[in-house]
Design goal:
This protein has 236 residues and is of the alpha/beta class. 44% of the residues lie in helices and 17% in strands. It contains 9 helices and 7 strands.
């Protein structure tokens, strides 16, 4: 069924978002990515959008619908960090992270849900983080924005669950990206000591879970938090 369905991945030009977009392409979906700059992977339609701007989101989604058709799946992945200890964290450090990570999810899901309601079929997948429930010093803004996605998905499930629409949260742990590659070797070793799996994940391991949630096999899963963290956040 996936071949005739359209998926949008926000922030799909790099990192986990790019891996998710690549996996959807490989599985035969029609894929669009939103990006503030850069391009999505081969086989995707890239549209410009800043998820903090509802007008820009609306224009981007209209462009995708005109080009590819009705949007069936939205993966809210776009996110930023502005790490700072609480007493040094400015109002802007807090507000901008929450507006992108949480507000961005609100704007793209609200816009995408119209078509899903019409079709009586949809998948909302919110990319959170192990940090959302595990906590992380210096990341009060980021962790707050990521844990809030759980309440978002569960409330959305109660609102739209009877219309063939699911809403779930994927919570990645440490992933092999350019960012983690730059960490000193001893810091990486320290992190890995706390991860039962003893290693970081590949971005593709996250992507596989996301594409599975988007498909027909996951039709009866909603309001769930699915960790992809090698056991780091167990019990949270």
């Amino acid at each position: 069924m996936s071949q005739d369905r359209v998926v949008v991945v926000t922030g799909g030009n790099r990192g986990i978002g790019r891996a998710i977009a690549e996996r959807f392409v490989a599985e035969g979906w029609r894929v669009a990515v939103t990006a503030r700059s850069g391009e999505g992977p081969a086989g995707t339609l890239t549209v410009r959008a800043d998820v903090t701007d509802a007008v820009a989101v609306d224009a981007a989604f209209s462009e995708i619908e005109a080009e590819l058709g009705p949007i069936a799946v939205v993966v809210a992945n776009a996110g930023i960090t502005k790490d700072m200890l609480l007493l040094r964290m400015s109002e802007d450090d807090f507000d901008s992270v929450v507006s992108t990570n949480l507000g961005g999810a609100f704007r793209v899901v609200k816009r995408a849900s119209k078509g899903m309601l019409k079709a009586r079929w949809g998948r909302v997948i919110l990319i959170s983080s192990v940090v959302g429930l595990y906590g992380s010093a210096g990341q009060i803004n980021y962790a707050a924005s990521k844990s809030a996605l759980v309440g978002f998905a569960r409330s959305l499930t109660r609102e739209l669950g009877g219309r063939g629409i699911t809403a779930n949260v994927v919570a990645p742990g440490f992933i092999e990206t350019d960012m983690t590659a730059e960490l000193p070797a001893d810091t990486q070793a320290e992190y890995k000591k706390n991860i039962p799996a003893g290693r970081f994940a590949s971005a593709d391991e996250v992507a596989g879970v996301v594409t599975w949630l988007a498909g027909d096999d996951a039709a009866y899963i909603s309001g769930a938090v699915i960790p992809v963290d090698g056991g780091l956040g167990m019990g949270h």
